[in-house]
Amino acid sequence: MQRGSIYKKNGSWHVRFRVDEIGEDGLPRRREITKRLAPVDDNHRSKAHVRDYADREVAKANKGGSAEGSLQFKIFVENYYLPSLLAAIKDHKKHASTHKFYRDTLALHVTPAIGHIRLRDLETVHVQRMLDGIVLSQNSLERIKSAASAVMSYAIRLGYIKGGNPVHDAKPDGTPSDFEAYSYSWNEVQEMLGLLDEPARTVVAVAAFTGIRESELRGLKWEDFTGNELFIRRGVWRRDVGLTKTKESKARVPVVAPLRKMLEAHRKLYGKFQWIFAGPRGFALDTHNLVARVIKPAVGDRWHGWQAFRRGLMGILFGAGIDVEIAKVILRHSDSAVTRRHYLVLKSQREARAAMKKLEKVLVVPSRKLSRKKKPSMPERTLTSTSIPAKRA
Question: Closest Cα to residue 116, out of 69, 166, 73, 67?
């Protein structure tokens, strides 16, 4: 590994070393460059005094595992990273929505700030300055950081740069988000079912009684319905038919008797389509249009999105005393910690007060009279049954 050649010129110390890079013709080349280190003065009298400076400069060149390490961040994103995501989508390894998230996030926030920096030269301080210059919530900054980190991780996997990911140690200090996840109660679900006409009524019923995601709801076909179960095999995002969110999401979901009757009645009207919920042209139903044109006009402010059905089902299962591990299987989470963290949402302070009332019934605090006079210390004695305060009748 090269260390560079230190020399003195025009009253300053310099270091000369070689770098591998991609030329304007797109071909790799090896070029010799020079960096100024420090002035020749009392603090920098010899080569030894500036060796650390030289090592830091040369380390950037050594960090680049290949000539592609000289690529600017923006060029690498456009010519390498985003095309790799598109290829993964065609191979059914990634979701189309994933490509849109990274494309938009990188274009809006990341490349304008650090796009001009070469991969091998990108440091944590550059990423930190980028995050500090964006006025968004902490959750939004976390997503921006994850997008930048994914790009650098891909460059490391390709061997274009060596060492750790410089994005990892950056800290997104955004404003705390005041978002509170909403979950529908059983009463709210019943009210919606009473206000909606078909087919919106059955769409809402499936979301409420199975807890499946919006993309999975759109992806249901009649071949997935056995009568007692719905087999979740795919998700539909916009016009893209792809995989479920995780491998655990591809599973069978039980269908309760009332929902089975609704689906059987729905099949008599719409069974000619392959999709259980089909749009006017036969493709998977556009749920955004359904909400805007049918659901919101009918239910008004009661509407809080599709994900609230998934949280609501968790709340209903929790209220019914269903074990979290069983709920995890129904919601198809990979880890019960996810179930606990995201879906055990208290509907109101009323539930918290009810829980404390239950606690009051099992707690008995013995009363004790306080004396103004200090009593002499008593020797230790064995605790007997007579020394335990009697429980009041």
Answer: 73
Do 50 and 103 reside in the same domain of the chain? no
CB 5 within 8 A of CB 13: no
Integer Cα distance of 245 and 337 in angstroms: 17
**For residue 43, pLDDT beyond 80:** yes
Structure confidence by residue, pLDDT tens digits, 193-209:
999 999 999 999 999 98
Render 347-370 in DSSP notation, one character per residue: --HHHHHHHHHHHHHH------PP
Residue 355 forms part of a structural domain: no
Question: In degrees, to the nearest 5, what angle opens at C-alpha 143 toward C-alphas 137 and 146?
Answer: 140
Which pLDDT score, from 0 to 100, does residue 295 have? Answer: 96
Q: In the structure encoding, which two tokens stand for residue 198, read together?
A: 């078909």
Rounded-to-integer distance, Cα 27 and Cα 90, Å: 28
Q: What percent of the chain has pLDDT over 90?
A: 40
- State the average pLDDT for the chain: 81
Looking at the domain assignment, is residue 195 inside a domain? yes
Q: To the nearest whole percent, how much of the chain has pLDDT over 70?
A: 77
d(CA 22, CA 87): 24
Segment 208-225 shows an average pLDDT of 92
Q: Tell whether 35 is covered by a domain.
A: yes
Q: What's the rounded mean pLDDT across residues 330-348?
A: 58
Which of 315, 331, 347 corresponds to the end of one domain?
331
Cα–Cα dist 284/135, whole Å: 38
Residues 6 or more apart whose Cβ sits within 8 Å of residue 227: 255, 260
Report residue 338 as tokens: 């996810």
Strands 12-22 and 235-237: unpaired
For the residues of 69-106, what is the DSSP string, one character each?
GGSBHHHHIIIIIHHHHHHHHHTTSS-HHHHHHHHHHI
CA–CA separation, 215 vs 246, rounded Å? 12
